[in-house]
UniProtKB/TrEMBL annotation:
Alphabetically ordered keywords of this record: DNA-binding, Plasmid, Transcription, Transcription regulation
HTH arsR-type domain mapped to chain residues: 6-96
Origin species: Ligilactobacillus salivarius
SUPFAM superfamilies noted in UniProt: Winged helix' DNA-binding domain (SSF46785)
Gene Ontology molecular function, alphabetical: DNA binding
Gene3D superfamilies in the cross-refs: Winged helix-like DNA-binding domain superfamily/Winged helix DNA-binding domain
Protein name in the entry: Metalloregulator ArsR/SmtB family transcription factor
Amino acid sequence: MTIELLQKDQERAKIFKALSEVKRIEIIRYLYQSKSVHSCGDIETSLNMSKSNRSYHLKILQEVNLINVERQGQFKIISINEQPFHEFLPGFLESL
C-alpha cells in the first residue's frame, strides 16, 4: 500500500464525516438538483435554517472541498464541487 492511498483514505474519511449530518446532505441535494449557484440566503430560506446553523454547515462542507464559496460583493455564492463526489463517492450525487 502506498502513502498516496493512505492520504486518499484520510480524505475519504473526512468526507464521510462531513456527510454524516442530515442537514449537510440536504444542502448538497439542494445544490446538486438545482444545477446552479446560490447565495447563502437562498440556502437559508430554502432549507429553513438559521443563519448561524447554515454558516456552520457550509463551513464544514467547504473545509472538505465539497462546495465552492465565492465572494461577490457582500454576498457569498455557493456551488457544488462535483469532483470529490466522482472521485470518492461515485454514484452518490445521482442517488439524491
